[in-house]
Amino acid sequence: MTYPVFASGDVLNASDMNGVGLWLVKSQTVGTGVGSVAVTDAFTADYDSYKVIYDGGVGSTFITIAMQLGASTASYNMSLPYVTYGAAAAAGTSVLNATSFALMGAGDTSYAGVDVDVLSPNLARFTRVQGAYIANNESGSYSGIHKVATAYTGFTLIISGGSVTGGTIRVYGYRK
Burial letters for 155-172: b for 16+ Cβ neighbours within 10 Å, e otherwise? Predict the structure, then answer.
């Protein structure tokens, strides 16, 4: 498929616009030295699945980033197989009935980031996540399920081990 290219002043045809797969739903700038960032009005009935990207910020030191849906603090389950760079074997970690999705992202004094797909957060059923964990000494792919059948409109990124400064959190809806 050839993707449409738009220029200033172009008339946008419905067929061109209907071919766009991701739509920016929310963009939020992160403050200075924060230990958590609440993102409200991110999930709506317009989309069933979302991509959340946090990029452009930095950590105060090595940090990890967790995600909590709404005010829910129970029934988060996830696994993260990962490889330490240069290691011969993989390792892994997991959580069962935790207070948040742990290890959704990481950072240090040169970066901080999250890249996660969130499936069905705005529907009254279990929410699932999948994404990339990239740290300065290891990386892997995680997946998880929040076993609470509740619809959420927002989430909080929780910083462990320090704080973050700057960058932007963008939430995109996958077109139905």
Answer: bbbbbeebbbbebebbbb
Q: What is the pLDDT of residues 51-73, one digit of tens each?
A: 999 999 999 999 999 999 999 99
Distance CA 150, CA 8 (A): 42
The pLDDT confidence band at residue 19, using thresholds 50, 70 and 90, is low
Domains of the chain from N-terminus onward: 22-83+91-174 (2.60.120)
Amino acid at 1: M
Q: 44 and 176 in contact (C-beta within 8 Å)?
A: no
Query: Rounded distance, CA 22 to CA 34, Å?
Result: 29
